[in-house]
Queue: 3 jobs
Job 1
Amino acid sequence: MKPTVSAIIPTYNRADLLGRALDSVIAQDHRPLEAVVIDDGSTDHTPRVIEAYRHKLREQRVNFIFHRQQNGRAPKARNVGMKMATGSLLAFLDSDDLWLPQFCSTLVRLLDKYPSAGLALSGIHVIDGQDRIWKTREMGIRGRGEGLLHRPFERILRHMPMQTSGVMVRRSVIDDIGDFDLDLPVVEDWDLWYRIAKTYDFAYTLKCLACNRCHPDNLPKYDMVALTSSVRLNTKHLPDVTDPETKQILTQRIERQCTLLQEELLREGKTGNGEAHLLNELNPRTPRFALGSMISEGPDWVGRSYAWMIRALGELKRTTAV
């Protein structure tokens, strides 16, 4: 008997895109299948979309579970969804993303083929607001079209091959490793993949079977929440890195993130914002950080001007490099 796949779908004010995500679940060539939608306190017309899809999902033999909660961010919503799901396999579909029809069947087959794999992943297309593919994410995996990565913690630390909507995990692995970390509101998915990769193998296919949407409402990568989450993530896992080259890469990544965090604090005219301890503990020795630390002791307008100048130069550099 085929295993039930539970599609965990957190959503927040994505009513115009949620229907497309649910349509991609319906289009899967795998059954049994269920959609677990967690409305994380939406204030738009998400309830109308939910009502419109209740019958449609069940008519297409997709079990439907729905829960509405106060806004608590995606990690909490995914954890609630996993608790409510009935499947032995859990897949995570963001409400602005899509699956191609063979996503579930392919990853189920891979997990059956590779019993040591704690999760399976696929390649990812990047799509625009009209579902048009405009690029493919680089997985950093060379060789056959599919295979097994043996306990790839340090490998994926150097280059993350996956995106949340392209992953399927055994429920037994979540029971063993634990839920998404609620102290990491932005990079909680990377943290879970790191934790799983320390104990389990990863099965993969290079085929792009999931689509990650790029649009103006994507979460920012360099605001205060994102930067502090990234610093916490990387310092959390740094002690488990044994390869010297990988440790150096991660240390440099932490230093760069701390520098960006300092600049963000200066840009917002804040001296600590409750996150200064991250900088004090790590104390990265970069010129930008040292200058930023010195300037932060002066008037707020000086710090904001410095941070604006650094950010503007960074934007200019990225623009000219394209």
Job 2
Amino acid sequence: MISFYKTCDNHLTSIDVFEIDCWINVVAPTAEEIQILKNDFAVEPDFINAALDEEEASRIENSDDGQTLIITDIPYWDNSTENHIYSTFPMGIIVKQDFIITICLRDNIIIKDISSGMIKALNTKHKTQFLLYMLLRMVVRFLQYLRQIDKRTSFLEKLLRKSMRNKELTQLMDLQKSLVYFQTSLKSNEATLEKIRRGRAVKLYDDDHDLLEDVMIEIKQALEMCNIYSSILSGTMDAFASIISNNLNIVMKQLTSITIIMAIPTMIFSFYGMNIGSESGALPYATAIWFPTIISIIASVVAGIWFYKKDYF
């Protein structure tokens, strides 16, 4: 799908056809739409392929005819499942002299925020500023998702304190995996921003330096938050693993104590079952049924009291 947007009267407006200084948004393009980008807008084929590659890392590249490709990893939240999995995927931003293009495999919240006019100061005519505002919005989304991960982690911790179930532990593992994805993507995006700050790949104007510094500060904060949350979550997982192992030991200790207590009557009745005569050497009251019963009860009660005092129950 190809959409066109342009700033008119200080508002980002959707337009039907291409105009100079507009923003072209491309989401999951078909083969015909890819040909339109190549033929009508003279976009580098390698740039399109890179933007549509799910495994493409964040980077910046310039072509011989003045095109600039910025690949950035953007956050993605899959709320269709109960585990609330967070991940990242690449989005390509191609800057040309007359327009700017964004290409990605799926529709995402960042594009929706920008196209809905959430950023008031956005102007498609100022392409570098447009690029930086888009990167700033991307980092803001990272921060929002990181706060959601932190709240989700705290909620799962409360559930685990009440009931040690595999369901909550699996969700914590998914959150830990999400933090690894975020951490890797943020480091790659930070390296790309460092290249932009040098001013060689993208031309920076006087008003762009302050905005770029804001983006750098936000991405460093997001990376630091990601590292902190990842460390906390790793410690939490280790702590609950130790608690689960300790609970298993307690259960096994209790079951062993119960087994020993229940084995006492069996042993006593076994002895009396082999000595049923009244000849010399027989057990006392060998023919009396009540005697081994009383002995079994007393021995079991004594063993139970001893195990209780030793905190085996």
Job 3
Amino acid sequence: MRDKLKLIIFLFLAGILLYLGRDAIRKSDLMAWGLTLVGTTAGAVMIVALSRFRIELGESRHELTRRNAEINVALKVQKALFPRSFPQDKGLEFSAACIPARGIGGDYYDVISMPDGGVVFAIADVSGKGISAAILMASLQALLRAASSNDSTPNQVCKKLNDHLCQLTDSSQFATMFYARWDPATQLLRYVNAGHNPPLLVRRKEIESLVTGGRPLGMFPETEYEVAEIRLHARDLLVLYSDGITDAGQREGRDFGEERLRSLVMLVADLTLTEIQARILTSVRSWSGSEPEDDMTLVLVRSQGRQGGGTE
């Protein structure tokens, strides 16, 4: 920028001198020679400046290409962390989608089939965006899978995750999470909501919000979490979502909101999970009218009743 400014000033002064000395040029060979030298020098300076600009532009393009390659690799790694398939014959049906706002993001969901026959599923939203949020999300995924075991209760798992994140990060980085463990033998779902958007439980045309739990993970050491227990019946529907769903359109001052989501879920609750997912995401996109402002994650879970023993 400094070189460009100097060149502009130099050319401006040269133009003024040329204008003022136009009559002297006709009368003096020395003046003509001097101005020719000045013009030649200015041209040389301009060529050098353009060459430097081209070099800098090439380096910028190379750096951009390198960063895009790194982001693509990170995106592939992040996609590999999401479950490729869902447990079968466990009494639950799943459908899920995660749409990052900036190529890679901090939203996360997981569904894990446990050795004792149970199923663990979770949804989380890491603070921030971009690569830093994706790194923290990957750490959370590894910690969750390591902490989940046959004898671990949801509140014990969340306490372990909170303690680990408090050691790894400062209080400005945290994660909200809904963590649940399903027992197909008893049809019981035990869960903890660690500061996450309350999932919706739809049954018999009524909606209940699952709010029991505690603070977000990674904010306060030694946080205790409360576990809640509910019995699921056949056709009960759980809607887990990140705030990218309810906050859609916030930039225009009209967010989609939880009430609008609840009303929509009531209208489509009897459809298949794939159809429900499509209807919700389409409605959110139509409402916001732009590219996602935040990562959007939607996880749908439907109880199928007791496997092999009829429905309740």
